[in-house]
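pasting for ref
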Amino acid sequence: CAEGNTYRGGIRLTENINEIRFMEKAKNIINKYFDKKSTIGLRKSRNTSYLNCSSTDLEVFFKNTFGQYCYEKNAPTFFLRLDEDLQRAFYNGVYDGDGSKTKKSKVIRITSKNLIILLRQILINLEIPNSLKIHNSYTGKDGIVRRESYSLRELKESSKCFFENIGGNISMLQRIDEITLEKYNEFVYDIS
């Protein structure tokens, strides 16, 4: 996966200028599987490489399959039934575009709820411990409103979760550390 967008009549992928190898891979995939020609270019002033493919068919396919805007990013649910190596490859592709690495873990932070749910299920399918965090929308110091976003973190090991096959589906179960009983003064009204 590369950063990309559709435009009227085609698609454009963008990466760092040092990651031209991703553009070459994408060009080969587009040629092999879609029988479309594409061009690769460099914008040294912006330190980026890009790939353009002028094809309305590909534009429509990408919009319908993967969404048009960052908060609409998606992928077909059949990706969850792909072989494990293909699921891992898709996850790694998204990580290459939207991920970061800390000393302890790999993190993907995106604004698409649908895609983060699919990525989390892929990690569960691969039996990789993970955690999901929701970041509320906010207005930055620059006055720009930031959308709600989601962080999916791969955990090296976790004593708080384990995986079970339940009804033919791999599920991640988490240990409950503590249950507390809260006392609330609530009223229940029957309005029927």
